[in-house]
Design a protein that fits this description.
Structural class: mainly alpha
Length: 512
């Protein structure tokens, strides 16, 4: 891409802002809209398919992913990812054994550790990204992105390097469209969360308030949820003893253990109520209250509406979603259905009102271009370069999903560079990598990790295939209705070999 073209795209993207109208979304754009929100954008033929089946039927189908058959080829590929299928105990045992070998300076241990951790990291990324790009159960994948981010665990913290695959598989994925109470409980009792937010350290004579604070501030009530610092302390007391034993986890795959000896057995006063001593039941009671609290209903409804509708979602919509939350006792599917059936969701003002996160941008580009995906390494590396490494958010509040967080000149330059490489077929997506000692230093590291979960792309066994550029006509047809007349006019005035890059690097494509 010429420097002049790059500057033109940067200028257009920097100036881009959604045009707001107060009118229902035209019927011919509704299919594009739902594919951009309930899915990670359209693949070839998706817009026509949704138009044929009807937008409402598509929404209903996506809300019930169990009714959507998974392609046999995709299932076979996922089934071949052995490290992703390991139990939490097996994964942790392997991790500990490799660390022990390194400490004992056994011959080749460091190299084996780097290879094994590189393999585990690659397979975790492959499982997530191949599903996000190829699964027909798109809303399920969108909600995995949303809920993992909401209940964030940083993969670079100690043993969580070994536990994130189990955390996503066992504590997030099964509950993304179900009961929020069950999701809340699954994350609260998973060793990855217990370790990440330090609840394993909490005991009667040595409270650790990290998890209790984030449980109320981030996971449920919200920062303005009406609780006090004393409520944080009392909840931390109620959750003492919620832990796991590494040895029992490795031997028996016991992922959660209530240690009565560490529990504060005194009476607590929490959210204005006296809590009589009852062991583990105190923590379960707290989760019951938090899951269906009106402040939780408002906080989570706002976050969902911000993710799916606009950075500043309409208060009336948030209120209706909150009421649906309370009436359904926190049934996620019911709340989503309320949002998707609202006039605000299908309003013209919502079209293109969201700026894609790096994850959304990279996945949607892979989907729209229908690029081969034998190697997810280039996608993972791009997300790291864009500031959103997979499983790499260090803070418990997760990654932001607003335009303010991601729209800046440096990020636009990097996005356009990725779009150009993808469009010209210069990314080695079609060549599956082989395991080998990764280069040192690693290309991308997660700060604070004692063993980088970075993706690496060792040389393939055979020469890479020649570049196969993305067909610009097919790409434009795939995104029919998502590109403005002004963007189409600009693209038409440039040579054919630049058009696919211009589509993927356009302001229209960076928004959804």
């Amino acid at each position: 891409m010429t420097k002049r073209l790059l500057l033109a795209l940067l200028a257009a993207a920097s100036a881009a802002a959604p045009v707001l109208h107060a009118a229902p979304l035209p019927a011919d754009q509704q299919a594009v809209h739902v594919l951009n929100r309930l899915a990670f954008g359209p693949r070839p033929g998706d817009v026509e398919r949704v138009q044929r089946m009807g937008v409402q039927r598509y929404i209903d189908e996506q809300l019930h992913p169990e009714t959507i058959p998974m392609p046999a080829e995709l299932n076979a590929r996922l089934d071949a990812l052995e490290t992703v299928k390991r139990s939490a105990g097996t994964a942790l045992g392997d991790y500990i054994e490799l660390r022990k070998q390194v400490r004992n300076e056994e011959e080749g241990a460091k190299q084996r550790r780097r290879i094994e951790q590189g393999r585990a990291t690659r397979e975790e990324a492959e499982a997530r990204l191949v599903r996000a790009v190829e699964s027909p159960r798109q809303l399920e994948e969108v909600m995995v992105d949303f809920w993992y981010n909401h209940f964030n665990v940083f993969a670079g913290k100690g043993v969580d390097r070994a536990l994130v695959a189990s955390y996503e598989r066992d504590a997030i994925r099964p509950y993304v469209l179900g009961s929020f109470r069950e999701l809340l409980g699954a994350t609260a009792r998973h060793p990855a969360m217990l370790f990440y937010l330090d609840n394993v350290k909490g005991k009667a004579q040595g409270l650790n308030e990290n998890y209790a604070r984030e449980l109320m501030e981030l996971h449920t009530l919200g920062v303005d949820g009406g609780y006090s610092q004393r409520d944080v302390t009392e909840l931390a007391r109620m959750l003492t003893g919620w832990t796991f034993d590494q040895r029992r986890l490795v031997r028996l795959n016991e992922t959660f253990r209530f240690d009565a000896g560490r529990h504060d057995k005194g009476t607590k006063t929490w959210l204005g109520h006296e809590i009589a001593p009852s062991g583990q039941a105190e923590g379960e009671y707290a989760l019951d209250v938090l899951a269906t609290h009106p402040a939780t209903a408002r906080h989570l409804s706002f976050q969902l509406a911000q993710y799916f509708v606009s950075d500043a979602p309409p208060p009336a919509l948030v209120e209706r979603m909150a009421q649906a939350w309370l009436a359904s006792q926190g049934d996620i599917r019911t709340v989503l259905k309320t949002m998707f059936s609202s006039a605000e969701f299908m309003d013209d003002a919502a079209l293109g009102a969201k700026f894609k996160t790096p994850y959304q941008f990279v996945v949607s580009a892979a989907r729209a271009s229908s690029a081969p995906l034998a190697n997810v390494g280039p996608l993972v590396n791009t997300m790291s370069q864009l500031g959103m490494p997979l499983y790499g958010c260090q803070t418990p509040d997760g990654y932001k999903n607003t335009q303010e967080a991601w729209l800046n000149p440096d990020a636009l330059t990097r996005r356009i560079a990725f779009a150009t490489s993808l469009a010209q077929g210069r990314l080695p997506l079609a060549t599956r990598p082989v395991l080998a000692p990764p280069p040192a230093p690693m290309m991308q590291n997660l700060a604070g990790s004692d063993a980088s979960p970075a993706m690496f792309m060792p040389p393939p066994r055979t020469p890479p295939a020649p570049p196969v550029p993305v067909d610009p006509a097919r790409l434009q047809a795939t995104l029919a209705g998502a590109l403005s007349p002004a963007t189409l006019d600009t693209i038409a005035r440039h040579p054919d070999n630049l058009r696919a890059a211009m589509v993927l690097g356009s302001p229209d494509f960076m928004q959804h």
